[in-house]
User: Which sequence fits this backbone?
């Protein structure tokens, strides 16, 4: 599939959840508590897209389908887009911009605290999701900055888990998927580190998979 | 005879509900028009229930539409989703149904649902219901004071609390396969709370037999407490000396206390209780102390620190 088509398709797919909730709200098809349904739904899709974004690299490595890597920025920006909508529904329809109550919530309610922290950490990532920022920061620093996405994902799953009243099955499912996505990275990194320690590669040797960025600090 | 709950499609919109007398007049003619007699009218309290007495305890607020009252429920035995009970509760076997009342009583009794139905004339009580999750409804219940039922067993002087045990039908209740709560569902009230005139034994709502998802065939409604205190589909009532441990207290004692009175000043540890969203409304409302029933029930808690006894 050509990249342009793949991108257009992904873009359209990413807008579907929003369209669904907008249509449902309009048609009064979201049940007895539509505001809650929209808030929860947008939160769920923020998390879904975040996990999908984190699945890009493992998917590419496992399948060798390198084109997916080109979707990562768009997916990441959609995470931010849904996070903004999710936050807006909370600020607006839940609190009606009662800033005192909001501040109270952030300080007193752990699930709001971690949710807000996750959002705050997303902002710099969204702001640097462009070629200019990568050039400006330099690849290595940019990459280091964007590794905060792992912390964001953990905070997001905590946010979900702590708001649930009793049934932890869904949050646990998300935690499991996240653990797998982070675990596979850790495992790969560990393999790589061992390989480097064993002196398997000559430093910076080009391989069929591209240039190797060493994990062991260079002296 | 087995009672089938009304399906969502058969549910009465409030505007029809308001015109129910007219409907009943027309319906009375219907059997004459039905040939073959294959169509049975849905079981309902239409005849006696329609004549249900209004109550001075009723709120004059607009009742929440029946489709929401019977479509948005917490009844974890059928799943933790709000729509799960409406989806699965048709499997609950509500007949035959017996209620056992025992414990510290002079006369332990087992009552059949039909006998309970005849204990007292039904009243319609339009109560606010505030869920601990921060939403609320207004529901026209049909029932009679819980005390009428409790008196049947003649509680002894040592009885200070009442425990309510809900039905456990694992084969019919898909939610009981998960251990979110310890089944069967148990709740409790202090005896004076249970005997308070506002505490209602509920057999129906919106003029009809209780939909299964709302706790058929009998439940209680304790309107000044969070909704989970109003146990559904009750099979046993026990009079005891000490405060019984409820399923929610067992699951999370820090978050769910024995009293669980609606109190905007005492937050749930994970969310505020200061406001609520009335189902069907867009803006949130301020939550009222004792859910607005303070004039009737505040004296039950005189001198108690409600922050400690949450």
Assistant:
């Amino acid at each position: 599939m050509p990249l342009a088509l793949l991108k257009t398709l992904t873009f359209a797919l990413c807008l579907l959840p929003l369209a669904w909730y907008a249509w449902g709200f309009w048609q009064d098809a979201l049940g007895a508590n539509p505001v809650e349904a929209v808030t929860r739904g947008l939160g769920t899709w923020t998390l879904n897209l975040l996990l999908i974004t984190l699945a890009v690299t493992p998917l590419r490595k496992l399948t060798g389908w390198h084109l997916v890597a080109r979707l990562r920025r768009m997916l990441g920006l959609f995470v931010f887009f849904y996070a903004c909508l999710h936050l807006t529904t909370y600020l607006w329809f839940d609190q009606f911009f009662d800033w005192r109550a909001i501040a109270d919530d952030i300080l007193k309610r752990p699930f709001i605290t971690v949710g807000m922290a996750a959002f705050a950490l997303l902002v710099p990532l969204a702001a640097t999701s462009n070629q200019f920022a990568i050039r400006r920061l330099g690849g290595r620093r940019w990459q280091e900055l964007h590794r905060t996405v792992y912390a964001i994902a953990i905070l997001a799953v905590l946010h979900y888990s702590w708001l649930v009243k009793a049934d932890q099955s869904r949050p646990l499912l998300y935690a499991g998927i996240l653990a797998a996505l982070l675990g596979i990275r850790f495992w790969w990194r560990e393999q790589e580190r061992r390989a480097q320690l064993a002196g398997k590669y000559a430093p910076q040797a080009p391989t069929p998979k591209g240039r190797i960025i060493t994990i062991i600090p260079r002296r | 005879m087995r009672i089938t709950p009304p399906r969502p499609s058969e549910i009465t919109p409030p505007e029809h509900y308001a015109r129910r007398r007219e409907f009943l007049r027309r319906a009375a003619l219907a059997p004459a028009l039905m040939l073959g007699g294959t169509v049975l009218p849905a079981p309902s309290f239409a005849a006696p229930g329609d004549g249900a007495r209004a109550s001075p305890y009723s709120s004059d607020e607009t009742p929440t539409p029946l489709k929401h009252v019977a479509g948005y429920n917490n009844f974890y035995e059928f799943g933790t989703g709000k729509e799960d009970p409406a989806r699965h509760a048709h499997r609950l076997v509500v007949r035959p149904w017996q209620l056992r009342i025992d414990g510290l009583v002079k006369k332990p009794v087992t009552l059949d649902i039909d006998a309970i139905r005849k204990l007292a004339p039904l009243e319609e009580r339009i109560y606010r219901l505030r869920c601990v999750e921060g939403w609320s409804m207004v529901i026209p219940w049909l029932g009679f004071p819980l005390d009428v039922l409790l008196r049947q067993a003649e509680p002894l002087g040592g009885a200070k609390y009442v425990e309510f045990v809900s039905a456990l039908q694992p084969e019919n209740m898909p939610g009981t396969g998960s251990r979110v709560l310890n089944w069967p569902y148990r709740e409790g009230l202090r005896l004076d709370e249970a005997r308070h005139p506002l505490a209602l034994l509920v057999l129906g709502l919106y003029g009809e037999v209780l939909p299964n998802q709302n706790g058929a065939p009998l439940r209680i409604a304790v309107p000044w407490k969070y909704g989970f205190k109003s146990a559904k589909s009750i099979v046993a009532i026990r009079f005891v000396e000490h405060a019984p441990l409820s399923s929610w207290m067992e699951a999370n004692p820090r978050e769910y206390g024995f009293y669980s009175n609606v109190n905007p000043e005492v937050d749930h540890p994970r969310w505020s209780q200061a406001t609520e969203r009335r189902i069907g409304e867009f803006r949130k409302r301020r939550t009222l102390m004792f859910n607005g029933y303070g004039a009737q029930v505040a004296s039950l808690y005189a001198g108690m620190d409600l922050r400690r006894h949450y």
